[in-house]
Amino acid sequence: MPLVSAWTHSGVRAGFEVLFAETVPAGYLLRGHTTAVEGPEAWSVGYRIEADGHWHTRRAEIERMTPTGSARTTLERIDRAGSVQWLVEGVLRRELDGCLDVDLESSAVTNTLPVHRLDAVAGKTYATPAVFVRAGTLAVERLEQEYRLVARTSDEIRFDYASSTFDFRCELSYDTSGLILRYPGIARRTR
């Protein structure tokens, strides 16, 4: 994975995202920031996501700024008796049980987390529910989503993506390092 990557956001919002990625002893660290205008609102969201060596999200710290102020939230994954659970600001949120990833509304990057972990076979659909964090409010909810490998070439990996939570479907294109190249209506990689 490149150490620095960037995306232009367009369609749903106009903005820019930058990612600083590094391999750390415990796995991977993704630090990034998105600034955008979406409808009448402007916001800025920074994130720090820790994943283990198998690309399971372990912890996420998210901070947002809007004209009305700033806020922070911390998400922590806990594994208990074979099940995945999440603490949001230290409070157990049972509706998030079974979610393996964090997906930030503000970020194209977070769609890389399940793709790195999947040993995807073409045509097979993989359910990957995620902890979804809203950009403007940092509200946390469950996101039902699925990925289906369409094709893998020497330059690109393509997945059909669907979210029943938002009744949304598209084809996501990734580079061979697993970072989004094109997210229709949301972002395009520029670096």
TrEMBL record:
InterPro entries: Glycolipid-bd_prot_put (IPR009467). This is Glycolipid-binding domain-containing protein. It holds the Pfam family Glycolipid_bind. The lineage of its organism: Bacteria, Bacillati, Actinomycetota, Actinomycetes, Micrococcales.
